[in-house]
Structure to design on (412 residues):
């Protein structure tokens, strides 16, 4: 088997790894880089037999539009729906790729390759690692994963019953040189949200990805405990609808105490695409809340809406402090608006005297200790760092490490 990391050996995001046998070539992920200095990939020149997408984060799938549309793209079905949700609510066209759905722990074939997806705990839903077998070799690609989210049992299971005889493990290392100590688990995040809202005298805003389902559950549970109403935007409500495909224990707009704040622009997107959204638009009317209802008693609400919080935070800056609970990676706050939409406005809340800025976030990625447990269970003959800025540190932490540079050919 021949292997080339097109990108991702020495950076976080933008991962793309190519595996080839004599007759078949597959790509693992085809992501948009997170760093502006990252090199470009000439995706149109790639002619793989298939692309496997580990999970619906931009830095893992974001370049599939540049791919020849006839190339099959394998992904979890929920993950595909979540990608569509963002495209539609941002007003972008849906991808025209040839999507095929896989299911966790059910192997499938692409030419010489047999692939088994392993559902994983990550800040994106429907995230997978892959066991890839061909020509008598066994490769495991970790994707992005962690051991401290609401699906940590998936990590426990793979440690108890790991895939054996792994020749090569590609393992992410986002958290090398980053700490998760302040909020080691999602439960700790939930507790901070709860403490922030329970005695609030004005509205709270939660700034989080609407696709971080663990975080939405934390917000929902905090609201229940504190007797507050969780207000979500149309985008978040639509994201939650998608989870009905896989679970009946994820909150949605029909659950108490959830209400929808329908902004004009998001409502227009629904109107424009009745075939896509079906009766969702009609259905959500029963769960709407209006601005004047919120303004009458703002202390009753926690607002979560990634795409619309800017519209309304200013409305509530009064004599009573408004809580802005920042619930994603702090590093985004030093980004410019070009790198991360809204970063500058959010960063300014930190110094705004009318805002009580609260940080509450746990990483989507495994800590170094959990990475060591994972590598120790899989016992690969070779461990290659990917999705990390500190590949050179792997040798001090793990066994059988081989550092491979982008574009270097590796014969397995
Ligand atoms: Zn991810």
């Amino acid at each position: 088997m021949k292997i080339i990391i097109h990108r991702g050996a020495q950076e976080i995001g933008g991962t793309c790894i190519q595996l080839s046998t004599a007759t078949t070539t597959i790509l693992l992920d085809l992501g948009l880089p997170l760093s502006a200095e990252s090199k470009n990939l000439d995706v149109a020149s790639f002619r793989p037999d298939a692309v496997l997408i580990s999970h619906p984060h931009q830095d893992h799938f974001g370049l599939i539009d540049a791919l020849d549309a006839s190339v099959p793209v394998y992904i979890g079905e929920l993950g595909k729906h979540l990608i569509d949700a963002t495209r539609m609510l941002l007003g972008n066209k849906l991808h025209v790729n040839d999507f095929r759905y896989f299911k966790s722990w059910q192997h499938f074939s692409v030419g010489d390759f047999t692939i088994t997806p392993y559902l994983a705990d990550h800040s994106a839903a429907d995230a997978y690692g892959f066991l890839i077998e061909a020509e008598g070799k066994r490769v495991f690609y970790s994707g992005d994963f962690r051991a401290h989210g609401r699906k940590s049992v998936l990590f426990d299971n793979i440690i108890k019953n790991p895939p054996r005889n792994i020749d090569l493990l590609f393992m992410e290392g986002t958290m090398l040189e980053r700490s998760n100590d302040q909020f080691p688990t999602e439960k700790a995040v939930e507790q901070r949200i709860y403490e922030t809202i329970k005695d609030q005298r004005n509205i709270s805003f939660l700034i989080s990805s609407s696709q971080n389902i663990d975080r939405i559950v934390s917000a929902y549970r905090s609201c229940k405990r504190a007797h507050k109403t969780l207000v979500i935007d149309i985008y978040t409500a639509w994201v939650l609808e998608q989870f009905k495909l896989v679970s009946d224990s994820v909150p949605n707009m029909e659950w108490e105490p959830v209400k929808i704040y329908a902004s004009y622009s998001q409502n227009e997107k629904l109107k424009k695409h009745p075939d896509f959204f079906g009766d969702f638009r009609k259905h959500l009317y029963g769960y709407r809340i209006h601005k004047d209802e919120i303004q009458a008693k703002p202390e009753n609400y926690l607002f979560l809406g990634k795409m619309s919080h800017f519209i309304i935070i200013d409305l509530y800056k009064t004599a009573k402090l408004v809580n802005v609970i920042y619930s994603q990676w702090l590093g985004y706050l030093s980004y410019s608006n070009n790198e991360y939409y809204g970063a500058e406005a959010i960063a300014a809340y930190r110094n705004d005297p009318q805002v009580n800025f609260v940080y509450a976030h746990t990483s989507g990625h495994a800590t170094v200790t959990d990475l060591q447990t994972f590598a120790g269970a899989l016992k690969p003959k070779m461990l290659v760092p990917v999705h990390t800025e500190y590949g050179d540190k792997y040798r001090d932490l793990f066994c059988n490490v081989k550092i491979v540079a982008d574009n270097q050919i590796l014969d397995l």
User: Anything to note?
Assistant: Residues 55, 57, 122, 124, 144, 364 surround zinc ion (CB under 6 Å). The mean pLDDT is 95. Residues 204 and 323 are 4 Å apart (CA to CA). The longest helix spans residues 77-90.
